[in-house]
Amino acid sequence: QVRLEEEGGRLVQAGASLRLSCAASGLTFNMYTMGWFRQGPGKEREFVAAISRNDGSTYYAEPVKGRFTISRDNAKNTVYLQMNSLKPEDTAVYYCAARRWSTAQTMGVASINGVDYWGNGTLVTVSS
Questions:
Q1: Computed from CA positions of residues 68, 121, 44, 86, in that sequence, does the dihedral angle turn out positive or negative?
Q2: Across-strand partners of 7?
Q3: How far is 103 from 49, CA to CA, in rounded Å?
Q4: Helical H runs in 1-128?
Q5: 9-26: per-residue pLDDT in tens?
Q6: More confident residue, 60 or 101
Q7: 20 to 30 A from 113, CA-CA: which of 21, 44, 45, 60?
Q8: Rounded to 5, what percent of the chain is helix, strand, coil?
Q9: Tens of pLDDT along 89-112?
Q10: Which residues have C-beta within 8 Å of that of residue 54, sequence separation ≥ 6?
């Protein structure tokens, strides 16, 4: 059974930093491109960032470029999202996602389509 378990979401003030983590189990981690998506209040789920399974290449949504950094540790089956300079509009439930045999750019362009597995999400709230 595949499980993606996110951690790290909480209430922070604007300008703060936060690191999310996602631990994967039940899958061969290095066969999957990993990504983060988010869903804000009253909004659709949207792509945030992805990191390729093999060469570590990354792809970001425009609103988070330069502020967020995605990374992965294949030895720990874990993917991270470092979020800096947080803004109130970053408030959302953040979901970890896995897509097999993909690239980071493909995951970003395809967005929610083609994701094989989802985590249950972790809430990030940014106060102004």
A1: negative
A2: 21
A3: 12
A4: 104-110
A5: 999 999 999 999 999 999
A6: 60
A7: 21
A8: 10, 50, 40
A9: 999 999 999 999 889 999 988 888
A10: 30
Q: In the prediction, which pLDDT does 114 show?
A: 87
CB 50 within 8 A of CB 104: yes
Residue 66 pLDDT > 90, yes or no? yes
| pLDDT score recorded for residue 11 | 98
76 CB neighbour count, 10 Å cutoff? 12
Residue with tokens 């789920």, as numbered in its chain: 45
Token pair recorded at residue 5: 């378990």
Whether the Cβ atoms of residue 97 and residue 37 lie closer than 8 Å to each other: yes
Calculate the dihedral angle through the C-alpha atoms of 115, 117, 123, 125, rounding to the nearest 10 degrees: -20
Alpha-carbon gap, residue 94 to 97, rounded angstroms: 10
| Residue 93 CA to its chain's centroid (Å) | 10
CA–CA distance, 117 with 97 (Å, rounded to integer): 6
Tokens matching residue 81:
């999202």
Rounded Cα–Cα distance for residues 73 and 77 (Å): 6
